[in-house]
Design brief:
With 450 residues, the chain is α+β, with helices and mostly antiparallel strands. The protein is 44% helix and 9% strand. A hairpin with a 5-residue loop joins strand 3 and strand 4. Bound molecules: zinc ion (ZN) (6 copies). GO terms for molecular function: zinc ion binding.
């Protein structure tokens, strides 16, 4: 069995995520206690004090599924069951993966601790006992999800839940607003994470985390600094602020995930900031270009969309951003990168590829001969689209015709002709009249009945 048995790690997951903390320290819930009884029963049934971890996880999953079938379940308990079920299923998946690859991983509080090499330049700190890890003489592990580092012997005593578990919860939402800063009095002179005593003028001075707005002891806050989602979202400011260890791990883990809906989080900035306007224009064009690429075998062969790299989600929607993208927007790198990709895409569609070129438009509203032969695309400069059928015209020509689309006009006429042909003796103009007279007689009938 490649997974080292980490006793009771499931029962220690804290499903009741407190509002402000990120990786809450264990607090036993009713669900935890119920599961502990399930495990106890399993040990008795199998006459095995050290029951197989996978069997325990399976038993817990089955138990929760049975409980969820009950209709009289309290909403809060139900949520706790669902959270726990998600964590258990993740753990089950991991155990099965590890069994296949033969890798030795210790799973504790959702962390996936893998053994590390003894060679290496730096001796890191153990985040459990806060002492140096002497790599040459002490074996140590690192969480493959969040990077949490600890002595091998300390892994079992970790109290923080892995941020990987926190972000996999269905109700996880990245905080993009500025937090309310709490005072020492609010926190009862305790660290917000480990609850050890903190106070000014002592060796345990509190440290403020700009992400949670809470105060921490020096073991839980190492003065790491990161750009904050709130300052990025509201003022496109990428300067670094001090954050606690938990926030650092969480923010690093989700840095590349498109979790920020800018049109909701900061609608004014996205509409008015010149850099944002440029990026939004690129993104809108990428969406049009994708329509060309999906129907082009040359583009598929070239795997042209892979140029987007970590910005793949740009061809799935228009408003989501990752923390990293906002940071790159601040230092100008994002616009430069997108400009490069945009040029490559345009060159393929407009110049290099016959298939894509064949899907371009002629401006039907052109009055001068030389311009009407030009092939235009929805993403070309000075081109406007019909909002209904997406046909492209020169902006000048479209405005001159009061945004009247000849293509839609033709469609409308064809449709009318079809309706007329299908009801040759029943002119459509008279039909509604007939219907309304029927209805009014119906209403009259109702009145006379009452
Ligand atoms: Zn972890
Ligand atoms: Zn340690
Ligand atoms: Zn602490
Ligand atoms: Zn093509
Ligand atoms: Zn034109
Ligand atoms: Zn149209």
């Amino acid at each position: 069995m490649p997974i080292e048995s980490a006793k009771s790690s499931v029962s220690d997951f804290d499903s009741s995520n407190a509002d402000n903390s990120i990786e809450p320290i264990e607090k036993r819930s009713i669900v935890d206690e119920e599961l502990e009884r399930v495990f106890e029963q399993l040990r008795i049934d199998t006459k095995n004090q050290d029951a197989n971890r996978l069997d325990m996880v399976n038993a817990a999953i089955q138990y929760i599924r049975d409980q969820l079938k009950s209709e009289s379940l309290d909403e809060d308990i139900k949520r706790q069951y669902v959270d726990k079920l998600v964590a258990l299923q993740l753990e089950k998946q991991k155990i099965e993966e590890c069994t296949e690859t033969g890798k030795v991983v210790v799973i504790e509080k959702g962390h996936e601790f893998a053994l590390q090499r003894s060679r290496g330049r730096h001796n890191p700190y153990c985040e459990v006992c806060m002492h140096t890890i002497w790599r040459l003489v002490q074996s140590w592990r690192r969480c493959e999800v969040c990077g949490f580092r600890a002595h091998d012997k300390c892994c079992q005593s970790v109290s923080q839940i892995c941020p990987g578990v926190v972000v996999s919860k269905p109700d996880f939402e990245l905080v993009t607003d500025f937090p309310t800063e709490s005072t020492l009095l609010d926190q009862d002179f305790k660290c917000a994470e480990c609850y050890s005593d903190v106070g000014y003028g002592s060796s345990s001075e509190p440290r403020l985390c700009s992400y949670t707005g809470q105060l921490y002891c020096k073991n839980c806050h190492w003065n790491d600094s990161l750009p904050l989602p709130a300052t990025l979202v509201h003022s496109l400011d990428g300067s670094r602020r001090a954050v606690c260890r938990s926030a650092k791990r969480l923010l690093s883990l989700i840095e590349n995930r498109p979790l920020i809906d800018m049109s909701r989080a900061s609608p004014i900035l996205i509409k008015c900031h010149s850099d944002f306007k440029r990026v939004q224009k690129f993104r809108r064009n990428f969406l049009y270009m994708k329509c060309y690429f999906v129907s082009c075998r040359n583009a598929r062969k070239l795997r042209i969309l892979q140029y987007l790299n970590q910005h793949q989600h740009f061809v799935e929607g228009a408003d989501l951003y990752s923390i990293k993208e906002l940071r790159l927007l601040c230092d100008g790198t994002l616009i430069r990168d997108l400009e490069g990709i945009h040029t490559v895409f345009r060159k393929h569609i407009e110049k290099e590829c016959e298939i894509c070129k064949g899907n371009g438009f002629y401006c039907e509203l052109c009055e001068t001969q030389d311009k009407s032969n030009e092939i235009i695309f929805p993403f070309s400069d000075d081109v406007s689209l019909c909002p209904i059928c997406l046909a492209s015209f020169h902006t000048k020509c479209f405005e001159k015709h009061s945004m009247h689309c000849p293509r839609c006009e033709r469609r409308k006429r064809r449709l009318e002709l079809k309706t007329n042909l299908s009801n040759p003796f029943d002119p459509p103009a008279e039909k509604p009249q007939q219907q309304s007279s029927n209805r009014s007689s119906e209403i009259r009938g109702n009145y006379s009945n009452s």
